[in-house]
Amino acid sequence: MKTNQDQRIFSALNHAITTLAGNPPILLPYITLAFIQLFILEIFFFSPQFPLSFIFGPIVRKLWGEQFLHYPVNFMLLPRIWQAIQTPFYIFVSSFFICLSLTALVAINEGQTVKKEDLRKKARGLYIQVLAAAFCAFLLLFLIFQLFELVQNRAVLIRATSGVTYLIKRIVLDGSAYWGLAISIVVTTIFAYIIPIIIADSRKFFPAFKAGLKMLGRSFWFTFGLIIVAYLCYVPIILLRQLSLVYTAMPDLTLLTLILSILVMIAIDAVVYTALTTFYLMQKENQ
Amino acid sequence: MKKTLILYIEILVGLGLVLMVFNINGDYAAEKQLWRIDREFATIAQDPKASPDAAYDRVIKKYEHFIKRFAHSRLQPLGYIFLGRVYSTHQDYRHGRSIFETAIARNKDKSTICLMALSEIGKTYVLEQNFPKVLETYDRVFKSYPQSDIGWRVPLLKASIYSLQKKEDLKQQTLADAVAYYKSMSQKNKKSLVGFVALRFLAETQIILKQWQDAEDTFRTILIEYPDPQYLTPSSAAWILRSVNVIAINELKNPQVAMGIYQQFIQTYPRHRLNKTLSVLVDTLKNPPKTKTAK
């Protein structure tokens, strides 16, 4: 039974990758998304250098201080700025390109001829609903992170230097990056089918939310397993990020970590959303 | 899709190349290069005697290359300072000093660099225990940059050198001259940063000379004449109050002296932000907390 579930997960992921590779209209929005993110990162990276320093220099100086305009301290600021723009970027930009890709996927699945203009028109019509879904997902993510921060603050107060209590402290504090990943997996699972339903059935956010939770209830372990397997690809990035913090002799490693993080995260999103939408469409056809 | 992908890659790579070309010999590239060489030197400096000559030569070559490559960068003078430090660490003090002198000669208009170089020259003489030359270097600093951080401190530094040489008479004479110098500077530059700094050094010198009552009077003058936040910063205020308390309680054995200074300040400046702290201090000095005696 378990093996069957595993096979279904890997088969779904494999099918999603094949779908993405074989259908440029589905893949292109994710490539564009990667391009936009890398372009912004490139601008941020070169911001302390001439000629961009003319624009960004005064801003960085005012907000963070002169030292962040110089090598290698600028590499301490780069991930912070990048992290700060992630939330608005995901809600407003990423959600649109995910919407565009899934619209193409649904159209191809229905055997329609994919026209760029039609896709954009349909995606624009559904964008507000997808935006609401993305916003709610981030709200939930934010609340869970706030709760986790309370747990972390409590863990800091643990005075034990050995035993189970100390072990709990270390797990909570040292594994914060992995806890973050786990929280993302949980939130992605809860919202897994909402965007696919909005796109496939042209539904509004609240009915889609209800239907999405129903769908999740029917195929929880499959969905949860699929998302976990996909998100595990992000673990090497976390390790690389921790390495770049420890290995201070190469500050430029921070940039490499950010580039890889962008590419891997977009690849995960592409595979997960394609797999889940395909799965939803199949379930719908079977009904 | 291939066309779009190629276009995206071209834009990203093209932009990166253009921005890199702009900075090929710019300040950012210089910072990066300097940081890398400095890291290499830091490993040598951890154990200078254990490092082979080849390691020194490698770093020296890199600094020399840096100086040539970034001839127009504002960081180039630092290359000289760092290069000189490599020679000093290798105990080639003479060569080190010649590099520092070059840095001074080529950057006469940059007081920070000249002061760094002079300070490094002084350090090499200290390491050689060549005290007359150390004093000579201090005199150079005092003559050229009397109002720099080191410049202000020169009279005290000279006294410490005489102390090292166990020349007590010269030490006392230098400190007495320092008192006279700081007093005259504070008189000539009243209500200015120079006057404030002069008073701070006057107090420091009086503490070294154990002229406790004079030091308390100087602190009183500082507080009364320089109450503005630009002078009485949190750190300087903390230093002054701590010194006043320690001298009054431990040296003069008379807390009334400190209380008198604080009360005078509160009366002169009834709305000053420091008054809350001073009131607490006055109360504490009036009713000192009873220390627990061991049973």
Give the topology.
The complex is a heterodimer of chains A (287) and B (295).
Chain A: H1 2-22, H2 24-46, H3 53-63, H4 74-109, H5 116-156, H6 163-174, H7 176-190, H8 194-201, H9 205-218, H10 220-231, H11 235-246, H12 253-286
Chain B: H1 2-22, H2 27-46, H3 53-69, H4 76-89, H5 93-106, H6 111-128, H7 131-144, H8 149-164, H9 168-188, H10 193-208, H11 212-225, H12 234-251, H13 255-268, H14 275-286
3D architecture notes:
The complex is a heterodimer of chains A (287) and B (295). With 287 residues, chain A is mostly helical. Chain A has one domain. Helix content of chain A is 83%, strand content 0%. Chain A contains twelve helices and no strands. Chain A has helices spanning 2-22, 24-46, 53-63, 74-109, 116-156, 163-174, 176-190, 194-201, 205-218, 220-231, 235-246, 253-286. The longest helix of chain A is centred in the middle third of the chain and has 41 residues, at 116-156. Chain A is globular, with a radius of gyration of 21 Å. With 295 residues, chain B is mainly α. Chain B has three domains: 26-130, Alpha Horseshoe (Serine Threonine Protein Phosphatase 5, Tetratricopeptide repeat), CATH 1.25.40; 146-209, no CATH class; 211-286. Chain B has helices spanning 2-22, 27-46, 53-69, 76-89, 93-106, 111-128, 131-144, 149-164, 168-188, 193-208, 212-225, 234-251, 255-268, 275-286. In chain B, helix 5 runs antiparallel to helix 6, helix 11 runs antiparallel to helix 12 (234-251) and helix 12 runs antiparallel to helix 13. Chain B is extended. The interface between A and B is medium-sized, with 19 and 18 residues.
Which tags fit this structure?
heterodimer; A: about 290 residues; mainly alpha; 12 helices; B: about 300 residues; Serine Threonine Protein Phosphatase 5, Tetratricopeptide repeat; 14 helices
Mean pLDDT of chain A: 90
Shape of chain B: extended
* Largest interface (C-beta under 8 Å): A-B, 19 and 18 residues
Secondary-structure-based class of chain A equals mainly alpha
Shape of chain A: globular
Q: Portion of residues in helices of chain A? A: over 70%
Helicity range of the residues of chain B? Answer: over 70%
Radius of gyration of chain A, Cα only, in angstroms? 21 Å
Total domains of chain A: 1
- In the predicted model, the low-confidence regions of chain A spanning at least 5 consecutive residues are none
Low confidence ranges of chain B = none
Could you say what the CATH topology of the largest domain in chain B is called? Answer: Serine Threonine Protein Phosphatase 5, Tetratricopeptide repeat
CATH homologous superfamily heading of the largest domain in chain B: Tetratricopeptide repeat domain
Task: Indicate the CATH class of the largest domain in chain B.
Answer: Mainly Alpha
